Amino acid sequence: MTDKKKSAQRFEEQLAGLEEIVGRLEDESVGLEEALDLFEKGMELARSCRKRLEAVEQRVERLLADAEGEGAATEEMEVEDGESTF
Fold this sequence. Notes:
The chain is an all-alpha fold.
């Protein structure tokens, strides 16, 4: 399995774990100590998920910037080629 697949799977697993924790915290039969432990684990998972999402967002922004840069370079080349034929 590639690192990308492992990372995506881990994110999905963390998100599912976070959803499970939220569900358990909503259960009124959970005691105070267990709720505190669940909350702490949930905060760790939320922090980890947020960091992963931020990293993905930065990667997407870089890819879009690269794509825009390539488009601009292509347009400049076309203009230069067009001018040189006159």
